[in-house]
Amino acid sequence: MSPVPFYILCGSLGAGKTTLLMRLLEYWKGQGLRTGVLMNEAGEISVDGPRAGTLAEQVMNLAGGCVCCDTKEDLSWGIAQLVRDYESDVIILECSGLADPAEVIDAVTDLYTARLASLERVIALLHPVSAEISHSSAYVTDQAVRCADELILNKQDLYVPGHWETFRSAILEQNPYARLWETAHARLDPALLLSPRVSARPTASTNVVFGTSPPSKHRAGMAYHPIATTVRLPGPLDRSRFSAWLKTIPKNLERAKGFFRFTGEHELQEFQYAPPGDPTLAPVMLLDEPEPAVVLIGRGFDVEALKTGLLGCVVTTKLR
Predict the structure, then answer these.
(1) Cα 256 to Cα 104, 261, 276, 277, distances in angstroms
(2) The domain containing residue 246 runs over which residues?
(3) pLDDT tens digit string along 98-124?
(4) The whole model's pTM is what?
């Protein structure tokens, strides 16, 4: 069974995430898709879940804390239930306005969860928030900007032009890889939002603005890098080659994790990397072993070069 497309909807408190969610659910329902929704709300009861239930095939509430920490285990369990029990064709998670999207991405790219759901896109809905008014909201906004594939600046109608332009410019500086949408009342065409990424501007006039990526000799012809890349390993790794590969990890790699074996060794190895700490390897015993693979999370580095270097550590057995 192929993994189900998984979308993360995150962003500022009060930015209009549920309004956008309802538009997406209506679109998927019109496409004949069975949509599973995971609603994360910081309170002990779900306020927005019943609204989503009018359009979604199944809604599961992750209430009582942020999905990035308090309900992180419930997230993987919820994805499994939506895929196996309710046969969802697509899954979307609406994060609490207090949730750190980077932690959520880390959770859903776990190699067990990746068997069931494949992270398709991170959609961030934002509006200008003053750090002086709400430091936590400003932090979540910064994290959402950094992680997003689609950046939607909402409530444009409530701000004077000068303020809005300053906000937009700051967003583009933080994340030059995402598409930038400017809206009011989260009004946009879901078909355009969910369309495949392209490097050039669309020929038709839309409300989407494409940020320009900084030039790089490593990124010729590539205008966008995914924030999470899964590198499947077709065989055991050479330990010395892997040690050399670790020294090539770029500073823009924010997270790496995986399971694999070294040639000539029986123990399954668990690999973890989360800067500023050093990479770690530890033997582990698992009853249900995942596919040998390493997940790379980050932007602004040469993904293909790092991936090629890792695959170069694989030991292939030649037939005689």
Answers:
(1) 14, 16, 12, 12
(2) 228-311
(3) 778 888 888 888 888 889 999 999 999
(4) 0.76
